């Protein structure tokens, strides 16, 4: 008996220990399967800034993580591997999407141009922050990241800015790109720092007594007036002999480092959804494809702890637009960017097994351009072989790969909302002195915008702005076909199906004849498709109509992933 | 007045015509396609999230989560460590500092030159020295050549060398210097002489060769040089130090293997070279031709007088673009006994097998082990197709497919086409600023396959 009791005790102890160990294991792992409810409405919180984790990353770590680690680890993720092998990959819907398939305002994103076209002044102003004030600019230190010259300065009013200069052989290239692309991102809805093109004489830069910089040998050296002049030998100047730079104002608040493009910040109650399932993060790829922002990687994102309504919030920013349009910051964009990752296993394997006879699209494009850049201030930016669906940033991220067609439609819709006049207003802020360059960039962005629209609107039924009208004999659903609205397509056909009902239409105005609306089910789910450019039926848009008294109202829009 | 004019227009065109025009316009330009959207009856940007996402939603089920993460968790520790290290390297500019250090060494006449026999395991440190730069004599004596070098591979290779004289500084002109070279190879393989030896019959020997003398020449311009040399060479041969192989003295009786006791030579040679390659370490165009003859006078009385004639020619052609290069090389060597009862010492015979390179390794037959065949003569054709598979800024990765055809033979009369041995293979070569930095190759032959990791291409 004692023996039995002893055994039972032993078993119970073992069970308690094992349970505790397993529980601890799950807690330590922080299983996202049980993640908290997503809530995009920002809550102000009393954060202890000291305790907040400051993320760190850099190009090397980004490359290692995305090119080596993640590519290797995918073979150890047995669940995903099995799905991939059996062709049952699941597409995860974005989790920051509201009932009408839009992204409500959040700490990542604020609907601006997508909500209502902004005025030309608003587009030009961007974040609305001012340029550095006149007077001496005290150089606090040299820029630590990147390859071209740059300084952190404090203007005469004490405001801090980062100055980044153009490469001497490519005047206006990086500063204009930064000003233009940052405004496009801002108008689209993303949080960005302010960027302005500034021109000034050398003697405006006065080094602080303790100013230091990293020289080309990698050593931190005192930054003197002579050293500033020496560093700026490789910087571009205006015809008047002034130095030209992009000035970006320091953000107000505490910088917490980059945000993850995959996970979330556990200590932030506003940030509970893994970022890879946020439409705003996924769609960065499409926004980046428009302005050719190949360098959109984790290091170019930023979390900032900001004051908000008596508390604090962590706002998520995207920054450093020097590598957009035709610029790579230090010169024109290398020809392969936008076409392949920095180390693209798929393209490398393809080149390897085709014995080099397969000409990569960027190689073809580079050769057709005679391997040169025709307009130095525009850099290497064209739409030859630009494929919106295949455009790639420098590094592969899960968030970008998991982008669904619904996410793509949403981003393309915002991009298409920029008119030619809007773009011209934004491009003016780049202060490009050559009209041809300005026209070229406008033309390329417009053409790219069209290509993006044609591609992403073709992946789903590009129907939006639904209106429901309840009549005595049935329902009328009116929609706007954005492909027609933006002139991307001349005509289309539509198919609407509901339980016991299927009909084709020539216009996006669907009359569902039922005899009496009262006989319709509640809720009524309509599946709408349109014809794609190849004539096949598109993916479905599901409209849920709910009865409100004697009328039906739209209560949900869902797009097939 | 204005209203009156409108009224007249209306009356003149007629109400029906206006209606007809309106209908036609409506049909041609359907309003739904072009008009701006009406005000919607719902708030498109409402913060109300989709049902599926507003409650606790599982991205993965528990079982799937464990399947996806159980094997990855241990690696996350490694990832974290790597990230920290890489961030440290990047933010503290460690690469720039290393580059600075390397440049400092170079500015002081010290150049790193890692030594490699065939793979990373058979590798070791090495350096070349430019003493005139070290002594800051480059400015005052720009033609002075005072160089040296050292290389070491544990248990396998050791070499020191130095040169002192006048080096060429212009396209056309003379040059000349004295040379000293000491090379020690404690574990060389030997499989017998002739084309039909067996790999199973291997033995090991130790070779230690010291050379002193002078070399000089004249540059004729257009990459063409004519040079001559006069050297004294002392060769000591002994038992090899390779544990798993027989000693050469026991395995092959001394009377069959000439030169087994070593020898002393006076060497006189002449060489003609023409090098028109665009980049010597990564040529895409041009050719490199080398023709030389050496007379070895045995001064030790071992009757080992012989003459060595050697021809090397390589040619590089871009195929359809500069991303595809065909490289071909032809090598022929013939060693000729001088006088009756003279022999060619085995350690100076033509050798075949391995990936070539390093001073005096066997000619390139990559499917066979290093120095697999020894004979009086050999003839080798190396063919490579090199093509770029990755490119980023000034670094690139090339793939290479190659085929080596070669044979070793003792008498020219015995040469037959059917005796050619073939190896095929492929590899990857990483280049930075058109210099080979790392090369991985594998080759197959009828004796199995070989794997190579090198820092240079064989030709």
Indicate the topology.
The complex is a heterodimer of chains A (561) and B (459).
Chain A lengths: L1 H28 L29 H15 L4 H8 L34 H6 L11 E6 L7 E5 L5 E6 L7 H16 L6 E6 L4 E10 L5 E3 L2 H7 L11 E7 L4 E2 L23 H4 L1 H8 L9 E8 L2 E8 L26 H9 L7 H8 L29 H4 L3 H12 L3 H9 L6 H24 L4 E9 L2 E8 H4 L8 E5 L2 E5 L3 E5 L10 E7 L10 E8 L2 E9 L2
Parallel strand pairs in A: 1-5
Antiparallel strand pairs in A: 1-2, 2-3, 3-7, 4-7, 5-6, 8-9, 9-10, 11-12, 12-15, 13-14, 13-16, 16-17, 17-18
Chain B lengths: L1 H12 L1 H14 L2 H4 L16 H4 L7 H8 L3 H19 L2 H14 L2 E3 L2 E2 L6 E2 L1 E5 H4 L9 E10 L3 E10 L5 E19 L12 E19 L2 E16 L6 E2 H4 L11 E13 L10 E13 L7 E13 L5 E14 L12 E3 L20 E3 L1 E16 L2 E15 L11 E12 L2 E11 L2 E7 L5
SS field, number of helical segments of chain A = 15
Domain count of chain B: the total is: 3
Head-to-tail CA distance between termini of chain B: 96 Å
What kind of sheet is the major sheet of chain A? 7 strands, mixed
Spatial strand arrangement across the major sheet of chain A: 4-7-3-2-1-5-6
Short summary:
The complex is a heterodimer of chains A (561) and B (459). Chain A is an alpha+beta fold.
Brief descriptors of the model:
heterodimer, A: 561 residues, alpha+beta, Phosphatidylinositol 3-kinase Catalytic Subunit, Chain A, domain 4, 4 domains, seven-stranded mixed beta sheet, five-stranded antiparallel beta sheet, 29% helix, 21% strand, B: 459 residues, Porin, 17-stranded mixed beta sheet, two-stranded antiparallel ribbon, 21 strands, globular, disordered N terminus
């Amino acid at each position: 008996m004692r023996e039995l009791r002893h055994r039972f005790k032993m078993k119970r102890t073992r069970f308690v220990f094992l349970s505790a160990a397993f529980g601890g294991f799950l807690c330590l792992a922080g299983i996202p399967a049980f993640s908290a409810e997503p809530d995009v409405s920002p809550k102000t919180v009393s954060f202890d800034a000291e305790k907040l984790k400051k993320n760190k990353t850099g190009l090397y770590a980004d490359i290692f993580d995305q090119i080596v680690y993640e590519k290797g680890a995918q073979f150890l993720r047995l669940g995903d591997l099995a799905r991939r092998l059996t062709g049952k990959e699941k597409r995860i819907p974005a989790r920051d999407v509201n009932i009408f398939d839009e992204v409500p305002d959040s700490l990542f994103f604020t609907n601006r141009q997508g909500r209502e076209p902004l005025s030309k002044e608003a587009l030009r102003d961007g974040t609305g922050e001012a340029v550095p004030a006149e007077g001496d600019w005290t150089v606090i230190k040299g820029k630590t990241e990147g390859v071209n010259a740059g300084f952190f300065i404090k203007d005469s009013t004490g405001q801090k800015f980062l100055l980044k200069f153009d490469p001497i052989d490519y005047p206006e290239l990086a500063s204009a790109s930064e000003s233009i692309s940052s405004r496009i991102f801002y108008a689209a809805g993303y949080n960005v720092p302010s960027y302005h093109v500034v021109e000034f004489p050398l003697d405006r830069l006065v080094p602080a007594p303790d100013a230091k910089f990293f020289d080309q040998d990698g050593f931190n050296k005192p930054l003197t007036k002579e050293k500033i002049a020496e560093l700026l030998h490789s910087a571009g100047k205006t015809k008047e002999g002034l130095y030209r730079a992009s000035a970006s104002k320091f953000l107000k608040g505490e910088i917490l480092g980059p945000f993850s493009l995959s996970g979330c910040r556990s200590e932030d109650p506003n940030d509970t959804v893994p970022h890879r399932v946020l439409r705003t993060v996924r769609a960065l790829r499409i926004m980046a494809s428009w302005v050719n922002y190949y360098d959109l990687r984790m290091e170019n994102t930023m979390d900032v702890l900001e004051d908000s309504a008596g508390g604090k919030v962590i706002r998520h920013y995207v920054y450093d637009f020097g590598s957009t349009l035709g610029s790579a910051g230090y010169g024109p964009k290398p020809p392969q960017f936008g076409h392949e990752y920095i180390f693209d296993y798929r393209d490398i394997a393809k080149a390897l097994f085709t014995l080099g006879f397969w000409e990569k699209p960027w190689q073809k494009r580079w050769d057709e351009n005679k391997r040169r850049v025709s307009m130095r201030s525009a850099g290497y930016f064209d739409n030859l072989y630009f494929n919106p669906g295949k455009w790639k940033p420098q590094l592969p991220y899960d968030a970008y790969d998991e982008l669904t067609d619904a996410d793509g439609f949403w981003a393309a819709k915002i991009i298409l909302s920029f008119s030619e006049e809007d773009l011209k207003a934004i491009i003016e802020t780049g202060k490009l002195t050559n009209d041809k360059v300005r026209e070229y960039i406008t033309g390329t962005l417009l053409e790219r915008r069209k290509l993006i629209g044609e591609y992403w609107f073709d992946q789903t039924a590009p129907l939006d702005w639904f209106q429901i009208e309840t009549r005595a004999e049935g329902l009328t659903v009116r929609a706007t076909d954005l492909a027609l609205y933006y002139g991307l397509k001349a005509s289309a056909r539509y198919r609407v199906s509901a339980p016991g009902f299927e009909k084709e239409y020539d216009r996006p105005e669907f009359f569902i004849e039922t005899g009496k609306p009262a006989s319709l089910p509640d809720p009524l789910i309509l599946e709408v498709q349109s014809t794609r450019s190849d004539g096949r039926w598109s993916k479905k848009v599901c409209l849920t109509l709910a009865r409100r008294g004697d009328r039906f109202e739209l209560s949900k829009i869902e797009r097939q992933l | 007045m204005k209203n009156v004019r409108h009224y007249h227009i209306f009356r003149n065109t007629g109400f029906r015509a206006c209606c007809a025009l309106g209908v036609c316009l409506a049909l041609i330009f359907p309003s739904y396609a072009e008009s701006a959207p009406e005000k919607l009856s719902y708030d498109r940007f409402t913060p109300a999230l989709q049902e599926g996402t507003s409650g606790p939603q599982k991205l993965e089920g528990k079982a799937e989560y464990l399947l996806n993460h159980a094997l990855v968790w241990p690696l996350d520790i490694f990832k974290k460590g790597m990230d920290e290290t890489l961030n440290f390297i990047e933010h503290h500019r460690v690469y720039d500092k290393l580059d600075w250090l390397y440049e400092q060494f170079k500015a002081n006449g010290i150049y790193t030159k890692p030594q490699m026999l065939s793979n990373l395991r058979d590798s070791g440190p090495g350096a070349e020295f430019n003493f005139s730069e070290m002594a800051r004599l480059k400015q005052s004596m720009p033609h002075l050549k005072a160089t040296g070098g050292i290389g070491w591979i544990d248990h396998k290779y050791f070499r020191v060398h130095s040169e002192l004289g006048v080096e060429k500084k212009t396209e056309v002109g003379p040059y000349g210097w004295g040379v000293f070279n000491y090379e020690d190879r404690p574990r060389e393989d030997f499989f017998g002489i002739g084309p039909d030896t067996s790999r199973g019959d291997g033995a090991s020997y130790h070779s230690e060769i010291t050379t002193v003398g002078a070399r000089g020449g004249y540059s004729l311009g257009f990459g063409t040089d004519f040079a001559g040399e006069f050297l004294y060479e002392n060769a000591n041969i002994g038992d090899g130090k390779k544990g798993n192989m027989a000693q050469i003295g026991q395995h092959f009786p001394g009377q069959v293997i000439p030169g087994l006791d070593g020898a002393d030579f006076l060497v006189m040679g002449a060489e003609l070279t023409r090098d028109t390659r665009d980049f010597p370490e990564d040529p895409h165009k041009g050719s490199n031709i080398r023709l030389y003859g050496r007379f070895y006078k045995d001064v030790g009385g071992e009757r080992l007088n012989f003459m060595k004639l050697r021809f090397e020619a390589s040619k590089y052609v871009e195929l359809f673009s500069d991303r595809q290069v065909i490289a071909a090389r032809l090598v022929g060597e013939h060693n000729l006994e001088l006088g009756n009862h003279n022999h060619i010492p085995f350690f100076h015979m033509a050798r075949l097998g391995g990936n070539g390179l390093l001073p005096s390794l066997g000619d390139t037959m990559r499917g066979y082990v290093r120095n697999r065949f020894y004979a009086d003569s050999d003839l080798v054709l190396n063919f490579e197709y090199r093509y770029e598979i990755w490119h980023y800024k000034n670094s690139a990765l090339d793939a290479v497919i190659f085929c080596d055809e070669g044979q070793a033979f003792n008498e020219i009369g015995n040469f037959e086409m059917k005796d050619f041995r073939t190896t095929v293979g492929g590899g990857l070569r990483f280049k930075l600023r058109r210099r080979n930095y790392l090369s991985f190759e594998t080759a197959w032959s009828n004796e199995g396959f070989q794997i190579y990791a090198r820092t240079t291409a064989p030709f």
